TrEMBL record:
High-level lineage: Bacteria, Pseudomonadati, Bacteroidota, Flavobacteriia, Flavobacteriales
Coiled coil regions, renumbered to chain: none
NCBIfam families reported in the protein's UniProt record: prc
Keywords, comma-separated and alphabetical: Hydrolase, Protease, Serine protease
Pfam family, one: Peptidase_S41
Species annotation: Aquimarina celericrescens
Family to which the UniProt record says this protein belongs: Belongs to the peptidase S41A family.
Domain PDZ positions: 89-174
InterPro entries with a match to the protein in the record: ClpP/crotonase-like_dom_sf (IPR029045), PDZ (IPR001478), PDZ_sf (IPR036034), Peptidase_S41A (IPR004447), Tail-specific_protease (IPR005151)
Name of the protein in question: S41 family peptidase
């Protein structure tokens, strides 16, 4: 299977939306059967649906009425209790499981064919000899090209049972059409975007969401960086909208001493469930820095709060989203489900970082935009705090509840907004498609490059950058980047690296001259953990 946007940087709004939508997952016992016993209120709703179904003058899709009713009920509870229709549940579940069964390629439906962007390292297609730039024309007896081909059909044709075989007909420039058999396998949907050394002592790990496989990905990366000499670690949770709680707890455990409180939850009956660090910690002494921004939510905030409240490391960036509610997924019996808020979580000092939602969902979600207006994204002094929600860490540091994690070291947002423009171009797919076309002109040359050769030999020049701007304008996009040519070149080269080598190399290039990372590098060279 391909996943055409797998390697595109996360769309900021979608990143947060996905995280807060997915909520958090803890281990709970199954609900008692008495929850489903009949009562007058339930019978009232059942009767209403039956009357409409059988007696109403016009034909009505009562399924849609039920969906609307469920949505309206949940909307009146809190912003994060949500309904998941059957057609969406499978995709969401697959994403959060961290892998799927497929052939292991990322692709564009490009000019009516499946054009391979790259193959997953170690995946089924790479093992079978498929390369970037190949066009997949057929899968078994199914044609995979033509204007009428839909993306969901593509995915269905390339998915299948584990270890099942699919015969592909492939076109490659210079070779023509040939057949190849691919055995389907487990293909990872990585939640870890990058792990590399920022300097000889400082390791960097970026995580885009908290899925079932996140802790394993993180632990492999941490162990690898330690073997490379990392004495300090940066955990980048910017634009990480959250996900499952369990991986965040295990990650925090790696940095906290035995029996330290990581966080606790409290339900409607006042029952408290504490989560403590265990003896698993493998990085309890070195310096630790956590990067957050206004799109870091849910499980990201659990991790950052545990580190901050235990005086374990430095939080760098801007105030996080402010989601302190825990959801549990419950099946509705027809392939759909709800994620219902069942408790609140609290950081080790006892603070809730959930922002208010009493004025309705619209105002709740628009609060994010209010931060632009009040200036807090550029100036730490503009962050509004309440003395009634003041807490003290064991080390005597003042922290606040009531709406997100406030960083120890503030780094303002770029006022030029050029980064937002460039990220928009990435999210739109225009930059990726332009780069793909340019790479395809010299596909054999680029496919033979190593990462080291790419970084040393490939430079994006003015003609390449201007070519992209002309390409975007032909597609009707108004872009004004005349004064930011170097930033554009950096994004174009990063996108080239992404298509050739994956997200790790993309992040390495994009992070060049990143303000938060530069701040961390400066802090890491000081003797004291807290400046």
């Amino acid at each position: 299977m391909g996943y055409s946007k797998k390697y595109l940087p996360l769309f900021l709004g979608l990143a947060v939306g996905a995280g807060v939508f997915l909520g958090s997952k803890l281990n709970f016992s199954n609900p008692s059967a008495k929850l489903f016993s009949s009562n007058a209120k339930k019978e009232k709703l059942n009767r209403l649906i039956d009357y409409i179904d059988y007696e109403y003058v016009d034909e009505i899709n009562t399924d849609s009425i039920v969906d609307v009713t469920v949505n309206r009920i949940l909307e009146n509870l809190d912003p994060h209790s949500v309904y998941i229709p059957p057609e969406e549940l499978e995709g969401i579940t697959e994403s959060m499981q961290g892998d799927f069964i497929g052939i292991g390629v990322t692709y564009y439906p490009y000019r009516d064919t499946i054009s391979v962007i790259n193959t997953i390292k170690g995946g089924p297609s790479e093992k079978s000899g498929i390369k970037a730039g190949d066009r997949i024309l057929m899968a078994d007896n199914d044609t995979l090209y033509g204007e009428s081909l839909l993306s969901d059909r593509l995915a269905d044709k390339l998915k299948g049972e584990l270890n099942s075989q699919v015969q592909l007909k492939v076109f490659r420039k210079g070779r023509g059409v040939f057949d190849v058999v691919v055995k389907r396998g487990r293909v990872p949907l990585q939640s870890l975007d990058a792990a590399y050394m920022l300097d000889e002592n400082l390791g960097y790990i970026k995580i885009n969401r908290f899925a079932e496989t996140t802790y394993k990905e993180f632990k492999r990366a941490l162990d690898s960086l330690k073997s490379e000499g990392a004495q300090s670690i940066v955990i980048d949770l910017r634009d990480n909208g959250g996900g499952f709680i369990a991986p965040a707890l295990k990650m925090a455990d790696e940095f906290l001493k035995d029996d330290v409180l990581i966080m606790f939850t409290k339900n409607k009956k006042g029952a408290i469930e504490n989560n403590f660090a265990t003896r698993r910690g493998s990085f309890e002494e070195g310096k630790l820095y956590v990067l957050i921004n206004e799109n870091s939510a849910s499980a990201s905030e659990i991790f950052a709060g545990a580190i901050q409240d235990n005086d374990r490391g430095i939080i760098v960036g801007r105030r996080s989203y402010g989601k302190g509610l825990v959801q549990r997924e419950m099946a509705l019996g027809d392939g759909s489900a709800i994620r219902l808020t069942i408790s609140r979580y609290y950081t080790p000092t006892g603070r809730s970082i959930q922002k208010p939602y009493t004025n309705g969902n619209k105002e709740y979600f628009n609060e994010y935009l209010e931060r632009y207006k009040n200036g807090e994204l550029q100036n730490a002094d503009s962050i509004q705090v309440a003395d009634s929600l003041k807490f003290k860490t064991p080390g005597g540091k003042t922290v606040y509840g009531g709406g997100g994690i406030i960083p120890d070291i503030f780094v303002g947002k770029d006022t030029t907004r050029v980064g937002e423009t460039l990220n928009y171009l990435l999210r739109s797919g225009r930059m990726g498609r332009y780069v793909f076309e340019e790479l395809d002109k010299k596909r054999s040359f680029y496919n033979d490059l190593s990462e080291e050769e790419f970084n040393e030999k490939i430079e994006v020049d003015d003609d390449f950058a201007e070519g992209f701007l002309s390409y975007a304008r032909r597609l009707g996009m108004e872009i004004h980047l005349n004064n930011y040519q170097e930033q554009l070149k950096k994004y174009l080269k990063a996108t080239m690296a992404q298509q050739l080598f994956g997200t790790d190399e993309f992040e390495r290039i994009i992070n060049t001259d990143d303000a938060m990372i530069n701040k961390v590098i400066s802090l890491s060279k000081k003797d004291s953990l807290y400046p």
